[in-house]
Amino acid sequence: MSPFTQHSLVETLQAYKRTSLLKAGLELRVFDALADGPAEAATVAKAAGTDERRTAVLLGALAAVGLLDCHDTEFALPEGGELLVSTGPGFRGGAVKLLVSDAEWDAMRDLATLVRTGGPALATDPGFGYWQDFAAQATFVTKSTVEVFLDALTAWAVDRPAPHLLDLGCGHALFGLLFTQRFAHARMSGLDGADVLPAARAQAARLDVTDRAEFLAGDAFTAPLDGPYDVVVAANLLPLFSPERCAVLLRRIAGVLRPGGRLVLAGFVTGERPPAEETEAHLLSLLMLAWTTGGQAHSVATYRALLAEAGFGEPEVRPVGGLPVRVLVAGTVNEGNG
C-alpha cells in the first residue's frame, strides 16, 4: 500500500469536488456532447444549453481531474469515457443517482455525530425515497451478482418441478425475474414496499415474464409470506439489520421453504480480506451507520453462525469477481445443500 502523504491528504479533502464535477457533467450531458469526437466549449455549451464561459470553466475542471482530455481549446472523452455516454451500450453513469444521491450526501455530512449518537432508522421507514432510485437504477454490480446466483442454482433448478421463488425485499427484483426468465417452468413472487414495486413491475414487463411474476406490498418481518417456496432470495437485505434482527428474519424464512428448498443471501461482506481490499463493503457499513439502528455489511462468518442458528446447513459461498461480494446458498440442516 502506498504511504499517506500531504498530496494524499489534499486529494482526500477535495474528493467531493471531483464527485460534484462528475455529477454535473452527467446531468448536463457533457460527455454525450463529446461522444462523436473532440469539441470546443462553445459546441458543448450549445448542446447542453448552457453559457459558454461557465461551460468552459466546467470543462477545464473536468480535464484537470482526468474526467476529460484537453488539447489546445478542444475537449475529448478520456480512454474509457464511453462509460459516461448515456446513449451508449456501456453507460454506467446511472449509478450517480445512487452513489451520489442527496440522501447519501446528507447522511455523510456530519459523520462524527453519527458515530457519537447513531442515526435515525431511515432505511427501514416506509416511503424512504432512496429505495425507489435503487429499484430503478440497479448498479453495475447487480448483473454480475445475479449471474453468480443463477449459476449456483442451475443444476438444482433444472430438475425442480415448477420452482417458486420469493424475492424478499426485492427492489428491482432482478434476482427473481432473471431466475424466472432463465427457467421457463419457474415463477416468482416479490415482496417490498408499495412505492418500490412499480419499478419491479416495469422490469418484469421489460423481461417479458409478467405472466409468471407477482408482487406483494409489505414488510419482510410482518407481512404474510404465504408459500411454501422452493427458493427464497434475500439480496442486499440483511445489511439493513443487526445480527439479532437478521436471526429473526432467517427463522421466518426457514418456515416458508419447501423440503429441499434453497435460501440465497447476496451482497457485500467484510472480514475476508484487509479493509483496503473491501472498500465498498466498509463504505456500505458507514451508510448503514447513518440510516439504520444496527445494520452493517456482515461477515461470512456471521452469516454462517446465523444460518446455523436458524436451522440451515453449511452454505456454499461463491465470490463475485474481485469485489467483496458473496452469494451464499444454503439448504435446511436436515437436507444440507445436496
From TrEMBL:
GO terms for biological process: methylation. One of its GO terms (molecular function) is methyltransferase activity. Residues 151-312 form the O-methyltransferase C-terminal domain. SUPFAM superfamilies: S-adenosyl-L-methionine-dependent methyltransferases, Winged helix' DNA-binding domain. Keywords: Methyltransferase, S-adenosyl-L-methionine, Transferase. Residues 11-72 form the O-methyltransferase dimerisation domain. InterPro entries: COMT-like, COMT_C, COMT_dimerisation, SAM-dependent_MTases_sf, WH-like_DNA-bd_sf, WH_DNA-bd_sf. PANTHER family: O-METHYLTRANSFERASE CICE, PUTATIVE (AFU_ORTHOLOGUE AFUA_4G14580)-RELATED. This is Methyltransferase.
